[in-house]
């Protein structure tokens, strides 16, 4: 494979040999925090990870996995799996989703580009629909960006606007949806005061309506489709604030799992189904939970569920969610152009690569690792294995998930000696952590540790090297805290459980019998982040990393 203007040949490392099998293990949602009862990694039995942390001090360290270290606007922005794997694979820091959108909105460029001008064709005679997560979590979307988009579209000719909201409760506190809805309603009322017909048209909880990912459960997308496109849902209300408040009164109700609802007028007719000629924008900037809806909105040939109607619309994503599939064709903000990833360099230098995870994180060790690119660089040298995730249940019901199966696939790949790099993502800490179930997350962390042991045992058997790291924090702190770091309690004295990612650093551990004796962590990279891992792995394969990569974390001492 060649690339115009790119010399793919990597220089040999002067002190590190080639030919060692390297296992790269990404523990999803595995940060480092003070030990207490809400640190599920601390509470869980994790002898393997404990041994790495308490072993050779020159071969275990922490790196940043949030904020500017992964291309996000500020260090108050929690990391996520997408930007984390982008950084791990790319070896450089790219402006990411939220930051790209912020820049485009601030400069006004978003309104000048092809995507906005494409949807603008519908403004004169049809409706503009905005679909996405109503949240200020900054992981998938941000409410202030929606507010600016509403303002900008209305100033540029949109006369009828309908917003289809998905409530959060995962990246933000459960129950915060009411406040977000009130803020949104205030903005829409101001637009109505200016003669623009602007309303919320439908809604539902993010994990039950629309925002599935990796084709885990198409029924989730169908529930959203029925409400957004057909105007059909089991619950009908006159406004969004009333809808959320009422639905939250049900036993065990949670923002993440609110059932679908539609807003109706005085005659009981839905106010905003999507029809022929309308424009639709999905305003999430993060790709993974928008791709399935994007397919339903864009693909004429579609067999995942019965759409009933397939309206002829002008559809654009906030960003292009899949660069390889060109999905969607139209988008408001151009994605970061990530070229020359470590995976591409290594394959072009003959490194045989195996990548594996279960469905919910398979895209992270492949698509996101490879710079938002689907498929292999060279199918003769690469093998990607996806293990189906459990569907139809929340992850705390089966907290071990597929950790042991991933460990077994990695073990087999290592022992086969057919691969130079075996790369996996073990999802448990993140996916179970997101449920807010502390006991289940403890079980999840134990299972992840067991999977790591299987992989490290195989590395030992073949005389290989391991790199164990994470993409962001989650399971290490499962409670909301005040500025003093103390757990926040509600009016009933119960602690407020945290289901979101954290701002904590993550570990990077290196070792194995194949690691040269003089290899240790450098002392002059104190603020290292995930992007520094790529050069480190390239070194361990026996090569010098490209000059523009973030510096390696290791040195070789004679």
Automatic annotation (TrEMBL):
Binding site for substrate: 140, 170-171, 206, 213, 286-289, 361
Reaction(s) this enzyme catalyzes, per UniProt: (2R)-2-phosphoglycerate = (2R)-3-phosphoglycerate
Biological process annotations from GO: glucose catabolic process; glycolytic process; response to blue light; response to carbon dioxide; stomatal movement
Family: Belongs to the BPG-independent phosphoglycerate mutase family.
Cofactors, names only: Mn(2+)
Residue ranges occupied by any BPG-independent PGAM N-terminal domain in the UniProt entry: 102-322
Keyword NADP: no
EC identifiers of the protein: 5.4.2.12
Residues annotated to bind Mn(2+) 1: 430, 434, 501
Pathway noted in the entry: Carbohydrate degradation; glycolysis; pyruvate from D-glyceraldehyde 3-phosphate: step 3/5
Residues at which Mn(2+) 2 binds: 28, 81, 471-472
Keywords: Glycolysis, Isomerase, Manganese, Metal-binding
Residues of the Metalloenzyme domain: 20-543
Enzyme class: isomerase
Presence of keyword Metal-binding: yes
Pfam family, one: iPGM_N
Domain of life assignment: Eukaryota
Active site: 81 (phosphoserine intermediate)
GO molecular-function term, one example from the UniProt record: manganese ion binding
GO annotations of cellular component type: cytoplasm
Subunit details: Monomer.
Lineage: Eukaryota, Viridiplantae, Streptophyta, Embryophyta, Tracheophyta
Name of the featured protein: phosphoglycerate mutase (2,3-diphosphoglycerate-independent)
Coiled-coil segments: none
Biological source species: Tagetes erecta
Entry-linked PANTHER family: 2,3-BISPHOSPHOGLYCERATE-INDEPENDENT PHOSPHOGLYCERATE MUTASE, PHOSPHOGLYCERATE MUTASE (2,3-DIPHOSPHOGLYCERATE-INDEPENDENT)
Matching InterPro entries: Alkaline_phosphatase_core_sf (IPR017850), BPG-indep_PGM_N (IPR011258), Metalloenzyme (IPR006124), PGAM_B_sf (IPR036646), Pgm_bpd_ind (IPR005995)
